[in-house]
Design brief:
Length: about 160
């Protein structure tokens, strides 16, 4: 267990292709709604999932050494779920770096070029029933011992 890519677990979106541009609809310049996501081939024993969207290209380093910008933290997703609808408000929302719960879409600084956005799905071996409002780093600390598999979908966005 622990954090290691598992290429059997597949993550995709009907909104954008792997390494493709994230539509404006799903950004801070658009309607700012989360894209639909779906996953398949979770390992046997998966009891729940967590989903994260992180921009490691963001010029943000905090005092504790964390880096990038967190756009979405979603967890307590039951193990029988294999997709999230667009503009998902179900399950437990964590805290993003905009200082609010839920999804906050890409909005890189003007003139900063193209950023890559990593949408992660983590398959967990238990239902942790974690409280709302965890940030990404708090969530990762809680789920690391329970992570059976994880994989990512990368999308790109450059501010217009």
């Amino acid at each position: 267990m622990g954090f290691a890519l598992n290429l059997d677990l597949q993550l995709s979106s009907s909104a954008f292709a792997a390494d493709g541009a994230i539509p404006t609809r799903h950004t801070g310049e658009g309607e700012d709604v989360s894209p639909a996501l779906s996953w398949s081939n979770a390992p046997a024993g998966t009891k729940s999932f967590a989903v994260i969207c992180h921009d490691p290209d963001a010029p943000l380093v905090s005092a504790n050494g964390t880096y990038g910008f967190v756009h979405w933290v979603l967890y307590n997703i039951p193990g029988n779920i294999d997709s999230l609808a667009e503009d998902c408000s179900e399950h437990t929302q964590g805290q993003n770096n905009f200082g609010k719960p839920g999804y906050g879409g890409p909005m890189p600084p003007e003139g900063h070029g193209q950023h890559k956005y990593y949408f992660w799905v983590l398959a967990l071996d238990t239902e942790l029933n974690l409280p709302a409002g965890l940030n990404m780093w708090e969530l990762l600390a809680k789920v690391e011992p329970h992570t059976l598999a994880m994989n990512r979908l990368i999308g790109t966005y450059q501010r217009g």
